[in-house]
């Protein structure tokens, strides 16, 4: 009876004319208004400014008045000596972060799922996601303190083993590892939350049935839990691939010093420096546009691949 | 003992399961310690004698307990103006975020809204493509928002990802029957939203509030590029000077080598103390919101 009623209202809704539906729902557009206004002003209006990438910006003449230069800014970027280096640094950091940072939260969530002692479970969960609330400035500050050559905790350990202190932040070969692993430290707990949520929804009966059939816990992880969280994994993976070129400006910038610039200069820090520090607006916008376009292509490709392989996709 | 750690059934389990449990607990315990210890160390180091910290004597407990670092921090004015500014920016910014996110998420949860698909696309598109740094910067300038709080709180007013999470929450946790019943009782969408939806949506509001507030509290980049007056700087910009650019905070009239050494140690102490002081609000807030995480974040988790 109840179900039938529901169906009927649904049909009514579809048969309603557009005008009627608008009249019935106009209040919902009021709810949308603040968000829409913000979005148009601060996301879409700046897109209009992208034309700067094809102009030689002159502050006196404004965006519209500055002369067109075609693809000159782009060719200049592609031919610049930094181009290759920036691209390699950006991709290296993001792939490294992805490969290390992606599976660890999944392992954490799967492991937590099998802890019987609730207090221990809660402790692990609360503690591992606490660092997420620490600011990037503080995180890099902590790194500086721990890795410092005079009295830093890590170097005290190094000394304890009879070696000379290492200038970690000043040596290129350590930089990527420090960047990636501190990121894992900061966000594994937070990133695990979404998998923990999905795992909580796996039916207990399935686990019981498997246990009766003699499955070990390891087998249950592999044949029940993993398949159940696979759609979530795929979505998260697509989203992280979508930001492969967009790795955080903040942390890389804060971790930079003249000694590690060779590996720490990435596209986003470069955009900031040439754009806002050197005021080369047109060139900087071009570099930014190149970055966004590559990003979009990566996202679309991964999304399409995911659609084919696992039938899960963003849209 | 074993029962306490691994649960009642541990003893009766097969060998494979016992191995699994033991390895699992070791891994989780290690992860927990790896995360916890650095945080713990900073707290105990901030209360210890600088010489003991530098000498590697502070490992599990503070040594040479003192509050000199904190005393010095209290004297440093910029930190407190920064603190005040950050509180204002966070409060205003978070309110704006919530006012734009929550109602919009509710509207998007009503699937019969005409034009919902293209509208959603309009939002989602901005997650992956944007104007970039310079066009945004020029826009903020042309709106004369630079060097004001508005440059910090308005451009990021809607987090599209958060909007999607909140929409999923509304879709999944508020039954359609509730709406139908309220319509029968004469509710329009305004009344329904304010009287019925908001009161039962505390979990998602709490989670959104936490995420946005932490974001504002921790952000420094917009302040760095838009603010000129030092008196308007938020805490993170001041922290950057102390922690990253190694700016001296303690008095600088030291002459003798000994005094210099002492001053350097004090500067180290200030760093530990400043980290504790700066992280306190966020860390204090989250246990209160944590209980809502299960309901808010978990139901709202990404579903595309």
From TrEMBL, chain A:
Signal peptide as annotated in the record: none
SUPFAM superfamilies assigned: MetI-like
Biological process annotations from GO: transmembrane transport
Topological category with respect to the lipid bilayer: Multi-pass membrane protein
Main location: membrane
Ranges in a coiled coil: none
Record localization: Cell membrane
Top-level division of the source organism's lineage: Bacteria
Residues of the ABC transmembrane type-1 domain: 87-302
InterPro entries referenced in this protein's UniProt entry, alphabetically: MetI-like, MetI-like_sf, UgpAE/MalFG_permease
Keywords: Cell membrane, Membrane, Transmembrane, Transmembrane helix, Transport
Residues spanning the membrane: 26-45, 93-115, 127-147, 178-202, 222-249, 281-302
Matching Gene3D superfamilies: MetI-like
Record-stated family: Belongs to the binding-protein-dependent transport system permease family.
Protein name: ABC transporter permease subunit
Organism from which the protein derives: Lacrimispora sp. BS-2
Automatic annotation (TrEMBL), chain B:
Pfam families associated with the record: BPD_transp_1
Coiled-coil features, chain-numbered ranges: none
Localization (cell): Cell membrane
Keywords: Cell membrane, Membrane, Transmembrane, Transmembrane helix, Transport
GO BP annotations listed: transmembrane transport
InterPro entries: MetI-like, MetI-like_sf
Membrane topology label: Multi-pass membrane protein
First-listed, main subcellular location of the protein, grouped into a coarse class: membrane
Similarity comment: Belongs to the binding-protein-dependent transport system permease family.
Domain ABC transmembrane type-1 positions: 83-287
Domain of life: Bacteria
Keyword DNA-binding included in the entry's annotation: no
Transmembrane segments: 26-47, 87-108, 120-143, 149-170, 269-289
Descriptive protein name: Carbohydrate ABC transporter permease
Any one GO cellular component localisation term in the record: plasma membrane
């Amino acid at each position: 009876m109840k179900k039938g009623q529901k169906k009927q209202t649904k049909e009514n809704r579809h048969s309603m004319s557009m005008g009627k539906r608008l009249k019935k729902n106009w209040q919902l557009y009021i709810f949308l208004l603040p968000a829409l206004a913000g979005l148009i002003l601060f996301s879409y209006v700046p897109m209009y400014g992208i034309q700067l990438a094809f102009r030689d910006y002159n502050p006196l003449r404004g965006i519209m008045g500055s002369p067109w230069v075609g693809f000159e800014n782009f060719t200049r970027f592609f031919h610049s000596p930094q181009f290759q280096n920036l691209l390699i640094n950006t991709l290296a950091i993001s792939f490294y972060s992805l490969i290390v940072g992606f599976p660890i939260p999944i392992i954490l969530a799967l492991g937590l799922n099998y802890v019987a002692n609730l207090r221990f479970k809660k402790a692990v969960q609360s503690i591992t996601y606490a660092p997420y609330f620490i600011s990037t400035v503080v995180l890099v500050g902590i790194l500086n303190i721990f890795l410092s050559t005079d009295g830093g905790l890590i170097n005290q350990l190094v000394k304890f083993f009879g070696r000379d202190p290492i200038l970690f932040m000043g040596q290129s070969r350590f930089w990527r590892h420090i960047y990636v692993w501190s990121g894992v430290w900061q966000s594994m707990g937070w990133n695990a939350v979404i998998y923990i949520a999905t795992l909580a929804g796996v039916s207990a009966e399935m686990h019981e049935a498997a246990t009766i059939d003699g499955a070990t816990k390891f087998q249950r992880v592999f044949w029940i839990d993993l398949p159940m969280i696979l759609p979530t994994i795929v979505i998260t993976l697509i989203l992280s691939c979508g930001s492969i070129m967009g790795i955080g400006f903040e942390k890389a910038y804060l971790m930079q010093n003249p000694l590690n610039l060779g590996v720490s200069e990435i596209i986003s820090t470069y955009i900031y420096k040439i754009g806002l520090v050197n005021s080369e607006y047109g060139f900087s916008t071009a570099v930014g546009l190149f970055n966004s376009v590559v990003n979009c292509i990566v996202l679309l490709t991964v999304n399409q691949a995911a659609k084919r392989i696992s039938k899960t996709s963003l849209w | 003992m074993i029962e306490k750690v691994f649960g009642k059934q541990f003893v009766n389990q097969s060998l494979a399961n016992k191995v699994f449990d033991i390895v699992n607990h070791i891994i989780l315990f290690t992860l927990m310690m790896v995360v916890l210890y650095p945080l713990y160390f900073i707290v105990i180091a901030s209360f210890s004698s600088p010489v003991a910290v530098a000498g590697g004597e502070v490992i599990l407990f503070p040594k040479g307990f003192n509050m000199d670092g904190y005393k010095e921090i209290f004297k440093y004015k910029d930190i407190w103006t920064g603190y005040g500014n950050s509180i204002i920016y966070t409060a205003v910014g978070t309110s704006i975020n919530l006012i734009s996110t929550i109602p919009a998420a509710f509207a998007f949860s009503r699937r019969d809204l005409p034009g919902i698909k293209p509208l959603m696309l309009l939002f989602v598109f901005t997650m992956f493509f944007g104007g970039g740094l310079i066009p945004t910067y020029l826009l903020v300038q042309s709106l004369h928002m630079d060097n004001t709080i508005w440059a910090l709180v308005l451009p990021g007013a809607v987090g599209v990802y958060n909007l999607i999470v909140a929409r999923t929450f509304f879709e999944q946790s508020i039954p359609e029957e509730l709406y139908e019943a309220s319509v029968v009782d004469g509710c329009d969408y305004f009344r329904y939203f304010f009287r019925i939806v908001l009161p039962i949506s505390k979990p998602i509001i709490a989670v959104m509030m936490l995420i946005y507030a932490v974001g504002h509290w921790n952000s420094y980049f917009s302040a760095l590029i838009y603010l000129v007056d030092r008196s308007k700087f938020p805490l993170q910009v001041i922290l950057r000077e102390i922690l990253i650019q190694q700016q001296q905070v303690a008095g600088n009239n030291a002459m003798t080598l000994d005094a210099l050494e002492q001053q350097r140690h004090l500067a180290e102490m200030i760093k530990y103390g400043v980290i504790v002081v700066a992280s306190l609000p966020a860390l204090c807030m989250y246990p209160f919101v944590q209980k809502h995480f299960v309901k808010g974040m978990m139901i709202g988790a990404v579903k595309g």
